[in-house]
Amino acid sequence: MCRGDVIITDAGAPADWVKINVLRTKEFFEVYALVPGLLREEVQVQSDPAGRLIISGDPEQRDNPWGVTPFKKVGIYFIYRGSKL
């Protein structure tokens, strides 16, 4: 069994209004993102060459009444020393 943590950080301006939860199973990760005020088409989910998860969003209407701003969140998986993957 592998033990580790997924840490989600802001890359750029803080976006506390974006909520991301990660559930790790034996076979995969399930990622849930709550991004109020953005359409699905305005949110991108990617991974970079280092294997980090990147979730970003950019509202089409920048001067929206909800205060929704562009954001970028990065997820990093840390494996505890001595654990198996």
From TrEMBL:
Entry GO terms, CC: nucleus
Alphabetical GO biological process terms: regulation of transcription by RNA polymerase II
InterPro entries reported in the protein's UniProt record: ARI3A/B/C, HSP20-like_chaperone
Keywords from the UniProt entry: Nucleus, Transcription, Transcription regulation
GO molecular function, one term: DNA binding
Name of the featured protein: SHSP domain-containing protein
Origin species: Ensete ventricosum (Abyssinian banana)
